[in-house]
Amino acid sequence: MERVTFEDRNCSVARSVDVLGDWWNLLIIRELLWGATKFDEFQRNLEISKGILSKRLKLLQDYGIVVKHTVGSGTEYALTEKGRALHVIIIAMLQWGDKWNPLAEGAPLIPVNRMTGAPLAPVQLTDVNGEPLELKDLGLIVGPGADETTRERLDRLRQAAQQKAAASR
């Protein structure tokens, strides 16, 4: 079966899902963030077949998320800057899972500040002024990369929201 791709979509979420939408990719990234570097470690920790692991590591390399290095007589993998930036997504997923899909025994891992040992606060969105935001506070505006379809779609969403607000008055 041919893989569907979203790389040409005028949507940052769709293009991100193109890379991160496969659960193995996210779990490999998690392993790298937690310190795994060798193929054998990924295979053991994830209980993944060699074929799937090879394909996923190659895809992550192609997208510039992972680099492969020869170390002595072996090979190690590391996250690039682009890959390391995914730590926020992984921590947000961990925190979401602990809150909304918890184990009866409690969280398996607790992320902490390595220097102080203090647990991390829940990941939360803030605006550029540091103001915390909830879903009800979020809006969208057209960005410089928006195509005409995206502009029309955002305009339809805005009109529907205005109609809904007017009807509730």
From TrEMBL:
InterPro entries attached to this UniProt entry: ArsR-like_HTH, HTH_HxlR, WH-like_DNA-bd_sf, WH_DNA-bd_sf
UniProt keyword annotation of Lipid metabolism present: no
Keywords from the UniProt entry: DNA-binding, Transcription, Transcription regulation
Tree of life domain: Bacteria
Location of the HTH hxlR-type domain: 11-105
UniProt-listed Gene3D superfamilies: Winged helix-like DNA-binding domain superfamily/Winged helix DNA-binding domain
Pfam families: HxlR
PROSITE patterns membership: HTH_HXLR
Protein name, UniProt field: Helix-turn-helix transcriptional regulator
Organism: Pseudomonas sediminis
